[in-house]
Amino acid sequence: MAVHNNSSRRNLKRRGVIDVQFNWIFIMIAGFVILLFIISIVMNQKKNADTQSSISTVNQINTIIKGRQQAAGVYSELSIPETTMTFQCDPEADNLFTFKISDSSRTPLPLDIIFAPQAMTANRMQMWSQSFDLPFAVTAFTYITSNDRIILIYNESASSDARALYDSLPDNITRYFVSTQTELDRYDSYGDRKKVVCFNNECPHGDYLDIIPDSSVGHDLFGFGTVKFFRNRQVSTDIPYITKASLLGAVFSDDADYYKCQMNRALDQFEIKISLVDERLRLFSDDLPEGACNDTVHSARVNTVASLNNIELTQDTTKGIPLLYKKSAEIEQINTDLKLGSCPKIY
Amino acid sequence: MKNIKAQVQLGESTAVIIVVIILLVIGIVFWNKVNGSDIQKLSSQSQELSTIEIANAVSELPELKCSESGVDKVKCLDWHKIIAMNDTINNPADKKAYLFYNNYFKNSKITVRELYPYERNITIYDANLSKSTKTLLIPIPISIKNYITKETDYGLIVVEGYYTN
Q1: Which of A46, A62, A310, B14 has its CA 20 to 30 A from that of A295?
Q2: CA–CA distance, B124 with B105 (Å, rounded to integer)
Q3: Minimal CA–CA distance to A150: which of A164, A169, A131, A168?
Q4: Which is more confidently placed, B73 or A268?
């Protein structure tokens, strides 16, 4: 009996030990699960806050860019948490243009034409826009830079082009004239954050943008011409520009392919807009009574707009740009004539 | 007797585990629901905002606006520009313009509703989404100028934004 009692007491003691151990293991597991749950909530909240902050920055930039489209010629600044923005225009993907902030997903911008450095880390963005008119409004170009970037206008021979370019930029964008290589070397500390612009092959060493305005129809910097990007000891092919908005696009871009891609997107939009103008002139021809107004409208449609409707426009060759410039000037003149003749205008 | 006590303690522990698991499951379900409703709310808010954005942009498009001596007139659309845009976007032979303006007008329907002196409707753009989707309707009063007859008519530009539930 005594033996039996001893053994059953030992059994109960063991059970008690197991029970106490089980409780501790249970508390540890439950505690660990609860801790994991709380950590997952905190991590989730942190991730959400990061996403919301990047969405809010993307939205702010998007809103400002959209505002630019409707109010060309406006300069504005935007303070954001220091972040890296990347702009990408992919000719392989039908000129798909996207931008992203830090590690957020890429936001496509199918309508906006933005000229900016392809990667830019900043906490203060400078944004400016210009209307791209040929001669009617095609779209608005947005130029983006940051307050720690500078434009150096190389002006060895004190040309009027350099002065015209300097004056065309808003005062808030930092730009200086430099006339010698030594003077230019003083800005070496800016590294990639400086853009050197020169004219007619009178260029310094290093990376630069060479602007060669066309002189065949009277010299006009903001008419049309070609630009060449010299970067990492490699020179791009001649890329055409047309109008001031397009030239400024080259000044704010840091890469030849990016500039070409954005200009091709702009020229695609021109094709849509010219078809609208053509249709409007067809309606005018139908509705206007026979007379001087109808004759001018008909002639504008047949002789000028039709040729622009079929023009092959691409930034890869300089082929179509001089014709586009010429026809654009013709439309502007016809529009003035229509206005003076109290006729409905083309645009 | 002690044997029974130990069994009760084990049962208690199991019950506690089950209760904790149930509480955790309820917590996770509640968390997901709160998150889900927030996302749904944000999504419908952003769709509404997008429609308001389109409504604001459409009456300011240079392709539609009146322009006199280079000055844009506020909330005035050019009659011939409206017709030209309608013909070009809805040209079945060339979808290029439709695809381009799809980026502007997205999932919406844009109608110019002339009210005075004539009553007529011109649907410039229609994303043609299924009727099961909800719509937000924004009418904006406008004047419509015909530069040939020199007449000014009055009406609305109606932007209907389709959005999913």
Answers
A1: A310
A2: 10
A3: A169
A4: A268
Tokens of A17: 């030990």
- Any chain B CB within 8 A of the CB of A292? no
Predicted confidence at residue B4, as pLDDT, reads: 64
In this predicted structure, the answer to whether residue A3 has a pLDDT above a threshold of 60 is no
Average pLDDT over residues B95-113: 92
Mean pLDDT for chain B overall: 85
Least confident of A99-108, A118-127, A171-180, A240-249: A99-108
Cα separation, B16 vs A109, in Å, equals 55
Which residues of chain B make contact with A282, given a CB cutoff of 8 A?
A: 84
Residue B43 pLDDT greater than 90, yes or no? no
Residue-level pLDDT at A38: 85
Tell me which residues of chain A, numbers 113 to 172, contact chain B at a CB-CB cutoff of 8 Å.
136-137
Is A59 at the interface with chain B, CB within 8 A? no
| Cβ–Cβ under 8 Å, residues B153 and B125 | no
Please give the ipTM for the structure prediction: 0.79
Token digits of residue A226: 């070609």
Instruction: Specify the DSSP class assigned to residue B145.
Output: E
Size of interface A-B (CB pairs under 8 A): 74
Q: Report whether B130 contacts B85 (CB < 8 A).
A: no
CB nearest to B60's CB, from A22, A37, A70: A70
> Can you tell me which residue has the tokens 């130029």?
A143
Strands (DSSP E) found in chain A: 75-90, 96-101, 107-108, 113-115, 119-133, 137-146, 150-154, 175-178, 194-199, 208-213, 224-231, 234-235, 239-242
The helix (H) or strand (E) run that includes residue A12 is: helix A2-70
pLDDT at A317 (0 to 100): 55
Cβ contacts of A237 within 8 Å, gap of 6 or more: A228, A256
Is A145 in contact with A254 (CB distance < 8 Å)? no
Contacts of A110 in chain B (CB under 8 A): 103
Please determine, for residue A11, whether its predicted confidence score (pLDDT) is greater than 70. Answer: no
pLDDT of residue A222: 93
Verify whether the Cβ–Cβ distance A16 to B6 is below 8 Å: yes
Closest CA to A347 of A297, A294, A286, A303: A297
User: Using a CB-CB distance cutoff of 8 angstroms, which residues of chain B are in contact with residue A287?
Assistant: 80, 148
Tokens read off for A92: 């392989």
A137·B83 Cβ contact <8 A = no
Strand, coil or helix: B70: coil
